[in-house]
């Protein structure tokens, strides 16, 4: 297979922020809010759909005003000329510099839909139709603290960074981090005029060992771009330092199509999905990302983009699962899944469900009470409800973990492979006053029984080595053959 055919996958492997649509060519936070609201959420009970900004540019009267999302620390100021997002932090309230070409994609999209309550004092804002709403409360005016001070100084940026992490990061305890102590230790190192590079180094030291691939700091210091991010697991760092990620991905795909799968395997959906069969009796489908299935001129994050992504997904899964109907089992390979659009993660689970089920819950303010309970209905398209094995590794992250968490609730699914990465939360976007960009984990995903797998990852029911360091390509083939040779679970 030509290297050019694998370029999108390799590019994606480096670029996808591994999570809940913070990912694939869009702020797949356009991803952050792609969950289905629980029916008993009182803030959603009487909402009607309306566009904040109509196609002709006119402002919907329901949208105008100032709105506050406490859990996210955002004010939305909506006026005739559009939406201004204010970052409300313990250090102050400010607007971030405009998004530029180097701004992470999660920082380049804005809400397009509002679902106002009958009283008008509460509204849900959405990025895409049918996505989970972010709850905002209407306030009389923007607080006086917003814009009251210049925070674009070294001490200002430090205070915003430290306060935003303290207020919103949900997993210090799970990751063994005493954040208050780190802030106290770093404060004496920061002074105005110290320079961008020195400030970057201080913030980097505060993030050391966080081991969370969804929490990162991105920017430019003295003209040099930087990205401070930890928590990549063991497999990816090893592969990148040894044979190289491109060569690894090319080797995996080539091995699948020439040595493992039966003749006629299909590599499709913008090189994000590969499907076929093993020995004529086991259906196989590999999904690299939860989205990125199409290439067009449609604006990423738009309603048209979302519809196109799901339409392409449906076409591929209808074709693949139709071919699998007489198979003994199906292996769903998420062992190299880098995350993406949560709606796709749920759509995958719906393709293997015989009846409606509770998939997982999500708490947005870390108070221990989930705001959202995700129910998944069986798909209207082709489904496979026979024995299914989901294969994961420590590369599996974010949307890949959300799909795995949902699938584990199904009686016909066995989870095999190795433990997943342990980064579920959609990154919360907190651009800093100087243009640097902070993303952090603020959402707590849990199984229906309340179990949380952040940091620890999802442990498989059946342990099978997938990418051993002595054979990161060949080991994948051995794992598939091992799973295909097992008697199907009943």
TrEMBL record:
Single annotated GO MF: serine-type peptidase activity
Signal peptide region: 1-32
CDD domains: Peptidase_S41_IRBP (cd07563)
Domain Tail specific protease: 269-465
GO biological process: proteolysis
InterPro entries for this protein: ClpP/crotonase-like_dom_sf, Tail-specific_protease
Key word tRNA processing present: no
SMART domains on file: TSPc (SM00245)
Keywords: Signal
Identification of the protein by name: Tail specific protease domain-containing protein
Organism: Marinicauda pacifica
